[in-house]
Structure formats: structure tokens, C-alpha cells
Amino acid sequence: MKTERKDVASYFYHSPVGWLKITASLTGLTGIWFCESKDGQNHANQFTEETRRQLQEYFEKKRVTFDLPLEMRGTDFQRKVWTELLNISFGKTISYMELSKRIGNVKAIRAVGHANGQNPLPIIVPCHRVIGSDGSLTGYGGGLWRKEWLLEHEGAIQKEKLLF
Fold it and tell me: Which of 9, 28, 38, 59 has the most CB atoms within 10 Å of its CB?
């Protein structure tokens, strides 16, 4: 019988893209959730603390990759998609079609998009780096403004300059 690992720690971190709730088990990072406010108490462990530290470095432009033990909870297909997301370099984007090709199934583009949207570890597992084939930002679970902010932060897109 398979036992599900439980989250034992959570930590609220106020980032440039709003509040993030970081969750972890005894073996690794399990989630990063966008929140409108800090809606609970911090019960940190070594994984939430290290994640907060690495996220801080990322937002300060001192880190471009993360080195954390990830506990990706999902179906085999979802984990395959999420693992491939880890191969998208900082400052780069790919299309949903390209992501489908990379996992070996170009016909699974909708399923890939759905799995991308179910990613429980945004920023760390960079689902924000997947865009439409036409260059559009398309959807993002944390809101398009966060996706745009993250891509601008990484230099993958540039905010259009307004001329007056």
C-alpha cells in the first residue's frame, strides 16, 4: 500500500510577485503557492528555509538556477512535463509545441498545457518560461502579470518602452 507523504512545514514569503506559501515534507519541497496575503503561521523546516533563501537570491538577480530536493506530486505524465521544464534555461522561453516535442509527443500539446498549469512548484520548476507559438504569454496560474514580471526579471522579454 502506497502512503502519501504529508507536508510538515509551510512558510510565507513576501516576494516581488506577492506572497508565496512554501510547503515541504520531511524529504523535500512540495509546493509554492501564490497567495493574496499571509493567511497562516510559519512552521518552517530546512527545506522551506533553503527555498526562501534561494528565492531571495533569485529575486535579487544573484541566482539563475535552484538546487533544492523536489517532491513533485502528480501523475507520471505531469512529472514528465515538469521534469522537462527544468531544462528551460534562465532567460529563455519555449512554446507549448516545443515542450510537447521535447517529451516525445507532439499530439499531447493540450495535455502538456494542462500539466504545465498544474505545476505545484512555480518559479522553481519554471512553467512561466512556456509561451504560445506566436510569442503570446497565454495563461498562468499565478496571473499573467506575474508571468510577465518573471520573464522580464529574467530578461526573456522586455517591457515595451512608452514614448511620450
Answer: 9
